Each structure stands twice: as structure tokens, then as C-alpha cells.
Amino acid sequence: MMHRRAFITLVGGAAAPSLLSPLAAHAQQSDRMRRVGALLNLAAEDPEGQARLAAFLQGLQEAGWAVGRNLRIDLRWGAGDMERIRKQAAELVALGPDVILASTNQVMVALQQATRVLPIVFAAVTDPVAGGFVVSLARPGRNATGFTSADYGMSAKWLELLKDVAPSITRAAILYDASNPGGLPQFAAVQSMAGTLGVELTPVGLLGTAEIAHAIGAFAQVPNGGLIVTRTAEAIVHREVIIASAARHRLPAVYPLRFFAGDGGLLSYGPDIVDQHRRAAAYVARILKGEKPADLPVQAPTKYELVINLKTAKALGLELPPTLLARADEVIE
Questions:
Q1: Is residue 4 over pLDDT 80?
Q2: How far is 149 from 292, CA to CA, in rounded Å?
Q3: What single DSSP character describes residue 26?
Q4: Which of 150, 74, 136 minimizes the C-alpha distance to 304?
Q5: CATH architecture of the domain with range 4-150+272-302
């Protein structure tokens, strides 16, 4: 079930039922009413998913679109399950919305299988060109455009940060999803720095919860190890077990997005994904006014955030350099 209170606060109590049940808004429709689909890969009860949706709705409001007045939203949650995401994508396409918000690569893959015609705006997508979602970043050329999550080169920064917080590290497990188009390039970027920093990398595939916990535990049997988590939907879905396993085995760990640190991870460095969903709303609004996705350039992140969880650092017995703390966008105490 969705948390209705968040939407009451954002768009008003009268609009909340239309978010939960598209049919509830049917009687309110007029010639001015437009229809937007939204498919997020997370579960409805995931706070990160709620934050992304709230940012998207806020962006729509800022662009002059109000749910229940001139807009209705058909909302679906994928809960990290690819089979479910494909089903939800097919359902949304069958409803014939004017435009669809797609959050992450998983959702884009499913939507592309369902339609090559309906306009799509994506957020938090890694390498949309390699994924086949667009022809180029400057001229997408197809039915989709949006916001890419980061360039691969910045992934090397994760290993640098790991050495900054734990200089004695000589080994690092790197969790990545080989099935994701961005998985191997992120791994390669980290590997490019490994020799220079004197760190041996151990690749760990992101599979199920039990496999992840076992792999981290096995890696931690040898001392002087650390952990790097790449930016992928699987890591987000399994973040609780990853963070808990790192804490249990006292592994310093670097994560790709802010909410990992907020959930107890040691340190995160990555783009502001929640803000990308707010910015995606501006593209949705432009498409609703007649512009085509093919003509709207894919946009890169405008800001990378460094977040440090000082409580976790103390639990691991780490004394962080003052220079690193001074660089942080947020320090969680």
C-alpha cells in the first residue's frame, strides 16, 4: 500500500485518491485533463521510492500541473522484480498515457519492450546510449529522453575515498551487476585506479540476499579489506543486507548514493537522484505541451554529493581526516 499522507501534504487531500486509484478521478476529467504514467523500480513502502515520487510530483506542480485538476497519474511500483516490472510496464502502456516516467534501467528495458511510440522520460538511468534507449545524448532521436545518473569515470573516486577513510586497505570487494549495461564499465573505472592505489579488487555479483551476505562474509575472512558498492538497482533493493553485512564484518564501505549513508552506510558519493526525478517532471511538462523526446537532450547530473556517516565511522574505529569531513556535503552524527 502507498502512504497517502505524503501525497495529501503535497497535492491536497482531494487529489490523493486519484493517485491510488486512476478510476477515482474519472468523473473529474475534462478536455484539459492529461494522463501521465509513472513506473518506479522500488517498492511502494521504500522511503527512497517515496522521496523520488514526491520530487516528481513537486516538479509537476512547479510546472503548473495539478493532480485532479488538469492531470491524472497512473502509478506502478516494480519492487525490484523484473517480471513484475515487465507486467507493470505493459499495464501502463495499455492505458495510453500522454507520457511515462521511467525510473532506472530496469524500467526502461521493460518499457522499450512494451512500446516504441509512447513518449518516455527517464531518470536514474546509466548509459542510455549503450542501453539502446537513445541514439545519442545530444539528439535522443527516439521516443525517450531524460536524465543519466553519472559518467563512468567518477566511479574511480569510490576507491580513492575508500583509501582516504581506511589507508591500510589492500583488498576491496566490488559489488556490481554484470547484467546491467553500466555494471562492467563501473567496475573497469574502479579497476583503473586499483594498481595506483595498491588495492586488489575482488568482483562480487549482485544476486539474492543470502548470496550477497555469504559473499561479503567470505571476503571479510582475510584482513585489510574494504567494500565498494556500484550504482545499480540490485544494490538499492538489497541495500539493507549489504549495509548490515558490512557492519557485521567491520568492513569500511563506500556506496554510490546518499540514502545508503542515511541508512547506516559509512560513506556515499554520487549524483542527487531524488532531484533528477524533480527535473524529469520539467521534461514531462514540456512533452505535454507538444515537444518531442527525440529533440530534448539527455542531461547529466548537475551535482555529486559526498555524505559521511560519522556514527558508523566511530563504530568501525575509523578516525576520518578533517580534510575529508570538510569536503562533505553532509555529515551524519
A1: no
A2: 21
A3: G
A4: 150
A5: 3-Layer(aba) Sandwich (3.40)
